[in-house]
Amino acid sequence: MMVDTGAAVTIVTTAWAEAHGLKVKEGHNFAVRSASGEGMKIQGTTSFTVQITPMLELDLANITVQEGSFYQGLLGMDVLAGKAGVMGPAILKMSGPGTWGEI
Questions:
Q1: Do residues 57 and 90 make contact, with C-beta atoms less than 8 angstroms apart?
Q2: pTM for the structure as a whole
Q3: What pLDDT was estimated at residue 87?
Q4: How far is Cα 48 from Cα 72, in angstroms, rounded to an integer?
């Protein structure tokens, strides 16, 4: 999956859902447009768990499933917003050339 802070919703393709053995609940009551403004063909929704770090797993429900295979999955702001440690504030300290910094 690719993190996309410009995406309003999290989306996976039907091929990705099938490859991971996910059930797709057909039907939807919303429209999704791509970054170029084109309407997307939505197949339904699915649910799964994604591990962000060794200590952080997110249970995702009602994830949009669309036709297509260009991106296998986009992790959008519907999931990322407000998750501490995912998109929360961070401080980056840089020590100088040739030395390690810390986050």
A1: no
A2: 0.70
A3: 47
A4: 14
* Distance between CA atoms of residues 89 and 73, nearest Å: 24
Ordered mean pLDDT values, 10 residues apiece, the chain (103 residues): 87 90 85 85 90 80 84 84 56 57 51
Q: What are residue 18's DSSP bridge partners? A: none
Contact between 46 and 24 under an 8 Å Cβ cutoff? The reply is yes
**Any idea which residue has 């030395």 for tokens?**
99
Tell me, what's the pLDDT at 57?
81
Q: What share of the chain is helix, strand, coil (3-state, %, to 5)?
A: 10, 35, 55
- Bridge partners for 11 per DSSP: 64, 74
In terms of CATH, what superfamily is 2-80? Answer: Acid Proteases (2.40.70.10)
Q: Where along the chain do its domains lie?
A: 2-80
C-alpha distances in angstroms, 16 versus 7, 37, 66?
18, 23, 10
User: Is the CB of residue 70 less than 8 Å from the CB of residue 14?
Assistant: no
Residues 6+ apart with CB under 8 A from 72: 1, 2, 12, 13, 15, 16
